[in-house]
Design a protein that fits this description.
By secondary structure, the protein is α/β, with parallel strands linked by helices. It has 2 domains: 115 residues, Rossmann fold (3-Layer(aba) Sandwich); 296 residues, no CATH class. It is built from 17 helices and 14 strands. The strands form 3 sheets. The protein has a 7-stranded mixed sheet with strand order 7-8-9-10-11-13-12, with helices on both faces. A 5-stranded parallel sheet has the order 2-3-4-1-5, sandwiched between helices. A hairpin with a 5-residue loop joins strand 12 and strand 13. The longest helix is centred in the middle third of the chain and has 22 residues.
Length: 424
């Protein structure tokens, strides 16, 4: 058995349970939702068990008779339970009554969104800070608070070890497995998506190989803004019978419903929210280990600079983009804990890019660049200086996340932070 690994979302849940009657924890299979929720539950109903579904359908009143908090695991298997919880909260809004976990959006949507009654909390695979808890030294919350204080701390992590972390995945139950067993588990995870998850979402995959090829092409587009037509073309090179656009839209919809796709939305240094809607997202899978496995990449092939899989407008190496995806995963975990949102920035003509923009509620931002390098030079901070000129005091702080060993602040005020040292 794998012992429980404390998660960043634990603190968020502990805060929310004290004031909210119902919380829905959502995210892809294997991220640890059930284990995290069970640690807070007084009663557990596992609705992926048909017998428990039948008991629940026969006697919905047990929902209110059972010791709280009541955990309803895989609630989407019996969507009517959402409305039962909502109505129960209408009758009694005492905090800490219900926890729901779900690995997919239900095919039959509840009659009500649950707004005002059920609060949704996203759970992702493990961040670097959760995998390497003894390393944490630089807090994102502190960076977002401003002050631009002195940075300190060092780590023994290097590019080789970060590459191994990409391959090992952030799924807690499998990441400590021997390499061959880990590969088999990831293969099984991907096979289940095609063979079980799509049918459960009401979509029969007529050509499983085409879906697998599309997923592989999406993996090849990790950390890029490649168009979906480019992804389709890369998935079906030389194929005169390409799948219809409606088919690939269905792929995207179902993969989003099961939280396998985790695209990063675009941001522009303007207050007009409508301008942001035109910015293409960067493509990311829920865990970069899945992208690596789809592409047949190993730690050795990545470190050697090999580029397996289809080619989709790549800038830099595949390892560099998978490293960026690992940082994207981690930053989203940390930002959620700080009640902030994560974006990327790319101007319309492509002459300026910043890998990550962390935005507070007041629209002030923290800007982060990612470098798969052990040293940071002046060219690496060019776009951060440009952004500082563009938005002035709206830029709280700026940093480069890199694979070097020491945290420090440059003479120009830009922070330099080893990826392993950044934490919530």
């Amino acid at each position: 058995m794998v012992s429980y690994i404390p998660r960043t979302v634990d603190d968020e849940l502990d805060d929310l349970v004290q004031g909210l009657p119902a919380i829905s924890i959502e995210g892809p299979k294997g991220v640890g939702k059930t284990e995290t929720a069970q640690r807070r539950a007084g009663t557990v109903f596992a609705l992926d068990d048909l017998a428990q579904q039948e008991l629940f359908a026969a006697d919905p009143g047990r929902l209110e008779r059972s010791p709280a908090p009541v955990l309803i695991d895989e609630w989407q298997r019996y969507p009517a339970v959402w409305d039962l919880v909502r109505r129960s909260v209408d009758r009694d809004a005492s905090p800490g009554r219900f926890l729901l976990t779900g690995s997919a959006s239900p095919v039959t949507a509840p009659t009500h969104s649950g707004a005002g009654r059920i609060v949704r909390v996203r759970m992702r695979p493990m961040s670097l800070a959760e995998r390497l808890p003894s390393q944490a030294a630089v807090s994102m919350r502190a960076l977002l608070a401003g002050g631009k204080g002195i940075l300190d701390g060092s780590t023994g992590m290097d590019a080789v070890q970060y590459t191994e972390e990409i391959i090992r995945s952030g799924f807690p139950a499998i990441r400590e497995m021997p390499p061959r067993a880990l590969r088999a588990q990831l293969d099984g995870y991907l096979a289940r998506i095609v063979e079980h998850d799509f049918p459960e979402q009401g979509h029969l995959v007529r050509r499983p190989a085409t879906l697998r090829a599309w997923l592989t092409a999406y993996a090849a587009a990790t950390a890029t803004t490649a168009s979906y037509s480019a992804i389709l073309n890369a998935a079906t090179p030389g194929d005169g019978e390409k799948p219809a656009k409606s088919t690939t839209i269905a792929y995207r919809d179902v993969l989003s419903q099961i939280w396998l796709l985790d695209p990063l939305p675009g941001w522009l240094p303007v207050r007009n929210q409508f301008s942001r809607l035109a910015q293409a997202p960067k493509h990311h899978l829920a865990d970069p280990a899945l992208a690596a496995r789809l592409l047949g990449a190993t730690a050795q092939s990545l470190l050697s600079g090999k580029q397996p899989g289809p080619v989709i407008g790549r800038d830099g190496t595949l390892l560099g983009r998978l490293f960026e995806s690992l940082i994207a995963l981690s930053l989203r975990v940390y930002a959620q804990a700080a009640e902030a949102e994560v974006y990327h920035l790319r101007t319309q003509n492509g002459d300026h890019e910043v890998d990550f923009i962390i935005e507070r509620d007041d629209h002030r931002v923290l800007a982060l660049e990612v470098k798969l390098a052990a040293n940071v030079g002046d060219p690496d901070v060019t776009h951060l200086h440009w952004l500082r000129r563009e938005i002035g005091d709206d830029l709280i702080d700026a940093a480069v996340i890199y694979t070097g060993r020491h945290a420090y602040r440059r003479a120009d005020g830009i922070a330099v932070i080893p990826a392993a040292l950044l934490a919530p």
